[in-house]
Amino acid sequence: MKRPAWIPVLLTLATLSCGEGQPATEGEAESAGPAAIIVSPTDGATVTGPSVRIELDAQGVTIVPAGTEQPNSGHHHLFVNHDLTPPGQPMPVEEGVIHLGAAQTEHVLENLEPGDYTVIAVLGNHIHVPLDASTDTVRFTVVAPS
User: What is the pLDDT of residues 79-137, one digit of tens each?
Assistant: First the structure.
């Protein structure tokens, strides 16, 4: 049986009216999964050192202390001029990887020399394994105080 020619048009209109294929709004983005957010400094900023405050936020997850195992939760980690851990592996305790295990949402990087820096914020679970698609990256330049 042949279907009427207007049915594909109706299906297309129904799909578009449901928002499929459209950019996510802020509220919809939260349901997409956990996301680490670096609030400050902004990407491309020039900041005066030697101390720089990193301010963090998160979407789709509750920030809890390390070791707290509960659904939809995690804590922040900062990778400072350091490559990310391979997927599924716990984040190491070493220079350039900062664990914010007390559920902190900010951290001050101290004694930074003038130059370019890359900071990647990563949400990790109770055992420091990164949550899927949970990173944010900023690049900034530190200048000496005048």
Answer: 999 999 888 999 999 999 999 999 999 999 999 999 999 999 999 999 999 998 789 99
Q: What is the pLDDT of residues 31-67, one digit of tens each?
A: 568 999 999 999 999 999 999 999 999 999 999 999 9
Name the residue ranges covered by the structural domains of the chain. 33-143
Domain 33-143 has CATH 1.10.540.10: no
Would you state the structure tokens that stand for residue 113, as one six-digit string?
A: 């020399």
Concatenate the DSSP letters of all residues of the chain into one string.
-PPPTHHHHHHHHHHHHTTTTSPPPHHHHHTT--EEEEEESPTT-EEESS-EEEEEEEESSEE--TT---TTEEEEEEEES-PPPPTTSPPP-STTEEE-TT--SEEEE-SPPSEEEEEEEEEE-TTSPEEEEEEEEEEEEEE---
Cβ(123)–Cβ(75) below 8 Å: yes
| Calculated CA dihedral for residues 12, 16, 19, 20, nearest 10 degrees | 40
pTM, 2 dp: 0.77
